[in-house]
Design goal:
- The chain contains 12 helices and 12 strands.
- The chain is an alpha/beta fold.
- The chain has a domain of 132 residues: Alpha-Beta Complex (Aspartate Aminotransferase, domain 1).
- The strands form 3 sheets. It has a 7-stranded mixed β-sheet, with helices on both faces. The chain has a 3-stranded antiparallel β-sheet with strand order 9-10-12.
- α6 links the parallel β5 and β6.
- α9 packs parallel to α12 and α10 crosses α12.
- 48% of the residues are buried.
Length: 380
Amino acid sequence: MNKVYLDHAATSPMHPRVMDRMMTVMKEEFGNPSSIHSFGRASRLVLDESRMIMAKSIGALLNEIIFTSGGTESDNTALIGIANAYQNQGKHIITTEIEHHAVLHTCQFLEKSGFDVTYLPVNEEGLVSVDEVRSALRDDTILVSVMFGNNEVGTIQPIQQIGELLQHHQAFFHTDAVQAYGLVKIDVNEFYVDLLSVSAHKINGPKGIGFLYIRDGIKHQPYLYGGEQERKRRAGTESVPAIAGFAEAVQIAQSTLVEKSELYASYKKVILDIFNDAGVDYIVNGSRESSLPHVLNISFPGTNVESMLVNLDLAGIAVSSGSACTAGSIDPSHVLVSMFGKGSERTKNSIRFSFGLNNSEQDVRQAAQETVKIINRLLK
């Protein structure tokens, strides 16, 4: 059986060049980057060069990049760090109902600590309204957190417009760009973003490493205490091999950004053409005009998501029903609930296909054709 992996939004395989780079660093640069001897300095050079690559990829400065253990820590650090540092100026935070749980659960934690959080709804395309952001702003709002591109349905939010709006307000602007980074061109200055979260394993890098961009001059209270790593902003000895692998993945992603966007758009067309030719009843969830190139979320009326996933897996096709962080949950996707309402059948019959490294048109065709067979069998 030819197995096809179409769940790259959950995690992606490491690129061979990333593995080679990590192995080289593990063998040759084992020193502690905080040590002043030659071994430590060699590791420090790897960190500095990697940090520059990541800063350049988003138009940031070298000292604005903090290495973290991934997207979850980056989101937590951004929200909690700003909340604690600026609570004397206000305790109101704005976010959306469709954020990743790394943001939503952190906001719920902050609510228990005395902060007031406004959770903005989205429309049926998964888009938040800039006007609703404007209306929700208060004099005591200190932070607005809106994800760049949604991990479940792919909808890209009006980040630049929100950033422009906040230029006239004290609130800082954070975006979870974990799903968009490496597939969409991002410039923190062009989008007026103050904090931005990224994770390596979504772009064919290693798991357990990410970065948080914090604009220079913004106060931030760390919540890990220990050494003075990352300019006293994140304690703990840096994982030099993982960071080196991350930097390699960033370089590959940036150099192939346009090529990948066009390729994945063609994969979406292949899948939908096959469904159309087969007369399959389906609805695309999310925005067709403003969407991440690699994510395609589809509702199949009359089907059940659990049955679809089991049958697709038996056919060798790996897809998902949404966020991997809620795998095994019996609750419907909070993203789809926000878009369509809790009673909507689309919360119970939607599948996410997501493309990436090593996928071919033949793989995509195979996945679509198997999906058609399964739907016809289930609907009999």
